[in-house]
Amino acid sequence: MRRLRHALRAPATVLPLLSAVLSAGCGPRVRPLAGAPTPAGVIPRAELPAERQRLDFRWEYRDGDLLARGEGVARVAPPDSVRLDLFVDGGLGGGSAIVVGNDVFTPAGAGVERVLPPPAMLWAALGRLAVPPAADTVARVDGTLLRADIGRDASWRATFDGQRLSRVEHIDRGRLVEWVSRQSDGAVRYERPLARRSLSLNITRTQRASEFDAAIWNH
């Protein structure tokens, strides 16, 4: 149980340094896009739903041999704001974060920011495509899937199943750095392979919310 608490409260310098060292290696090579060419203009917008939502989920975080899991709540406000609360199983603590655009705030202090993916990956987990804009986007259709390489050197790859954003990959010099996948059953997974780091979410309930208490956005 102490290992679970340590996952959210590890010294701030250890995990980022470890990730930086491991990321210097070579990730798996990304294959060229498959399918028939299609205009980039047909790529879905992939934005948050128009109404506020509350998402309840189970989560599991791994960082090497470190493991933590528990319950979580996401309160999502379009177009680009979310409050996340994570609770470790067994009452061993937790943390919260506020994400507005590409800015992340952690009102509860140290720990939870190391569990969360970078903003672009976090938004992808919620179904919003929020990667940096880039020229030379190329798109191809393969059955029900539409894949788009974004950027001259394909820095990002987005996959859509119909209108649903199902996967986002971050690419560096042709190699996979990190990715997020979204299943239709509510299962979401973020992984940074070289760092042996992952975060899995299983969304158990989705509710519309007319309003949120304004205090949840304080930081």
The strand order across the widest sheet is 1-7-8-9-10-11-12-13-2-3-4-5-6
Q: Find the count of extended strands (DSSP E, 2+ residues).
A: 13
Q: Topology as H/E string?
A: HHEEEEEEHHEEEEEEE
The CATH architecture classification is: Clam
Radius of gyration: 18 Å
Measured distance between first and last alpha carbons: 29 Å
Contiguous helical run count: 4
Mean of all residue-level pLDDT scores: 86
For the sheet with most strands, the description reads: 13 strands, antiparallel
Give the C-level CATH assignment: Mainly Beta
Low-confidence stretches: 1-7, 9-24
Question: Which secondary-structure class do the elements indicate?
Answer: mainly beta
Global geometry: globular
Q: Which band does the percent of strand residues land in?
A: 35-45%
CATH topology: outer membrane lipoprotein receptor (LolB), chain A
- Estimate the helix proportion, in percent: 10-25%
The figure for the number of domains is 1
Q: Can you offer a commentary on this structure?
A:
The chain is mainly β and 219 residues long. The chain has one domain: outer membrane lipoprotein receptor (LolB), chain A. 13% of the residues lie in helices and 44% in strands. The protein has helices at residues 2-9, 14-23, 112-115, 119-125, and strands spanning 36-38, 53-63, 66-77, 81-88, 94-100, 103-105, 138-142, 145-150, 156-161, 164-172, 175-182, 187-192, 197-208. A 13-stranded antiparallel beta sheet has the order 1-7-8-9-10-11-12-13-2-3-4-5-6. It is globular and about 50 Å long.
